[in-house]
Amino acid sequence: MSDKPRHSNPDTLFSDPLRAPGPFRFDSDVVSVFPDMIRRSVPGYETVIAMSGLLAGRFARPHSNVYDLGCSLGATTLSMRRHIEVPDCVIVGIDNSAAMIARCRELIDRDPGSVAVELREGDILKSDIANASMVVLNYTLQFVPREHRLDLLKGIADALLPGGILVLSEKVVFPDESLNQLNIDLHHDFKRAHGYSDLEIARKRDSIENVLVPESIEQHRKRLASAGFSSSDVWFQCFNFASIIALK
Ligand SMILES: C[S@@+](CC[C@H](N)C(=O)[O-])C[C@H]1O[C@@H](n2cnc3c(N)ncnc32)[C@H](O)[C@@H]1O
Ligand SMILES: O=C(O)C(=O)C[C@]1(C(=O)O)C=C[C@@H](O)C=C1
């Protein structure tokens, strides 16, 4: 069940004090270091990816689609592919970064799995989502402008078959200011323990400001209910990164 380590160049994108970071973008520079960056930046990332596979093993239905929205390099897609055993199920991975999708295609082509995978370069806000037994948004909704989040989730709820599931993993904030600050500090400790310097941490924080817009778990669960999900709860959390499952 364990996922193979994913090799990647080391993330040194924010280490040069002379290079202005600019707003964070999923461009070819990020693509070249992405597996290393996300593993060293998101506490619990490997667990969430591996368990997304287990959930797919349980929820994927025959003759249905399983969506990986904001699929990046296909880590979730590959994990789900390893666990899906039902016939005629297609995993649809969508990402609007051309550089991500191009590299993802290479990695999927190299994977020996037999479940069909369809990759689309496009905006998940404009993509056709239908006949879904499972939808995954692993660390993607946080990059969608807040005003579009409800419509996206309504579309997902409509597309889900009865008994379908959404997995929503996000960076989160906490309503209590002291707990919020503690979780931010613990996240920075996590990054430091994975070799990032204070300078890199500060520069990355500036770069993702207003690009990655986190919300509280309460805000996510309220929106999921408004979007048409009958129930939702957190199944995994480490510091300020949480993963929610929502049932149709
Ligand atoms: C943090 S990464 C997701 C990581 C990935 N799900 C994983 O588990 O490895 C966020 C991804 O969402 C994509 N993205 C952000 N907004 C998007 C949108 N509106 N449509 C499609 N993809 C989007 C980005 O290009 C990026 O690849
Ligand atoms: O919050 C941070 O500092 C992060 O680096 C998080 C995060 C994410 O959650 O997507 C931001 C951008 C990169 O894709 C990798 C990790």
Feature tags:
single chain, about 250 residues, alpha/beta, Rossmann fold, 8-stranded mixed β-sheet, globular, disordered N terminus, binds S-adenosylmethionine, S-adenosyl-L-methionine binding, methyltransferase, SAM-dependent_MTases_sf, transferase
List the total number of helices: 8
The geometry reads as globular
**N-to-C terminal Cα separation, in Å?**
27 Å
Question: Strand-residue fraction?
Answer: 15-25%
Order of helices and strands: HHEHEHEEHEHHEHEE
Q: What top-tier CATH class of one domain fits best?
A: Alpha Beta
Small ligands present: S-adenosylmethionine, prephenic acid
Total strand segments: 8
Instruction: Assign a percent range to the helix content.
Output: 40-55%
Low-confidence stretches: 1-5
Helix/strand class = alpha/beta
**Residue-averaged pLDDT:** 95
Largest sheet: 8 strands, mixed
CATH H-tier superfamily of one domain? Vaccinia Virus protein VP39
Structural features, described:
This protein has 248 residues and is α/β, with parallel strands linked by helices. It has a domain at 45-173 and 211-247: Vaccinia Virus protein VP39 (Rossmann fold). It has helices at residues 28-41, 45-59, 75-83, 98-110, 146-159, 177-193, 198-208, 217-227; strands at 65-69, 90-95, 116-121, 132-138, 160-173, 215-216, 231-238, 241-247. Strands 1, 2, 3, 4, 5, 6, 7 and 8 form an eight-stranded mixed sheet that branches. α2 (45-59) packs across α3 and α5 packs across α8 (217-227). The longest helix has 17 residues, at 177-193. The site of prephenic acid (PRE) has 9 residues, from α1 and α7. The site of S-adenosylmethionine has 21 residues, from α3 and β2. S-adenosyl-L-methionine binds at residues 45, 70-72, 95-96, 123-124, 138, 205. It comes from Congregibacter litoralis KT71. InterPro entries: CmoA, Methyltransf_25, SAM-dependent_MTases_sf. Keywords: Methyltransferase, S-adenosyl-L-methionine, Transferase.
